[in-house]
## 1
Amino acid sequence: MQVLVRDNNVDQALRVLKKKMQREGIFRELKQHRAYEKPSEKRKREAADAVRRSRKLARKKAQRDGLLPMPKPKERPARPRPVSLSLTATE
């Protein structure tokens, strides 16, 4: 995995790296490896994950077919614009 650092902006590069790792599921995998998981618990978890995935796919298909309403788009707060300071001479 590779992240480019532009203009020495390490904070943004770190944010991008974390987002990529989140999407890849690295954090979830690390959390699972912290403690031993019994084979029976692993089977239960994997079965539950499969059910969750199939329900999600069915829900998405129903939304595309018009049987369910589409989710409302999330409103993102507007980014504050940088304030430009203009100095005027008042003499």
## 2
Amino acid sequence: MTSTNDIIFKVVFSLMLTINLLGNSLVIHVVLRNRRMQTPMNYLLSNLALADLLFAVFFIPRRLFITELKQPGGWVGDFLCKTFTHANLSWVASVAAVITLLFIAWERYVAIIHPHSLRGRMTKGKLRRLIIFSWVASVIFLLPETWVLYYNEQIRSCAWGFPDWLGKADSAMWLFVIGLFPLGTMGILYGRVVRRLWFTTDHSANTAQRTLLKSRKRVTKAVLLVTVVLGISWLPNLIYYFLEMFQLINDTATIETSVNSSEKLFRVVSYVFISINSTVNPIIYATQDRTFRRYMWRTLTNCFGSRNRKVSGDLQESRATVSGAAFVLKGVGIECKIKNAEEHDLDYCQQTQQ
């Protein structure tokens, strides 16, 4: 790429790094610090946010300093390639994110298609095991690549030390096991969920049931949008890697060189798409989920020392959600019954005489 294009991409990556760190840290903080947000779905979303954050920490800086990065040779260079300079840790985080999205799709499927199933219910113990599994499985998946990585002093770049057939197998695993299979599985699960929520006639006159249906639609729409963004962002790079390993395209230039070619430009653009995927998820939560948006805004206003309680004051009491509780304001003689403390709707307030 030309120097102009290089500057443009560095500006883009810097902006995405800032948004990523702020947004995903905010998601994790909101879930861990607010009891009302500590649901199985939100714990999975916070694990996804952690994966996206780690991806940015280990991947985007490499894109920023790739032309200035000069690493030593020998065993030190091999160690750096296996840990930092080839961004293998970022690929571990990306695989964990894909596995987490699979668990989210399964949670939505069970919650909506089989709401009374005890086996499919997401308990705290099961949730903890699934989160641990997502990271252990991603580390195991990346072990072969990490093992054969070394620093090639001739091309002054990290390179894989496996034969051609193993490189082809690795690219096929990425495309089908991490790309097409998870997306296909999530497509089937969400297809049934969408059919049940949007295309099944609901004749229920129960207000609580209609409210629950509306909430399920909102959450499903958010995670479905995250899944669509994942597919759009990742497939170009996975397809490129597959075609490159099977020598269906010519890419004699490595990413560390400055060769102006359409193949290299497409490759770098695909990296931009991958980085966008890990950046936009908190924005999706904030725009699609009102509760997430309010807690995010509350955290930001508190962080910047805002005293505006008109916007966030109602959330300060939401931890102690009550239903049908009565309280008496002594000295005034007013007895009020709160039906919905979350939204602070006072159904009635009856004044009594002492």
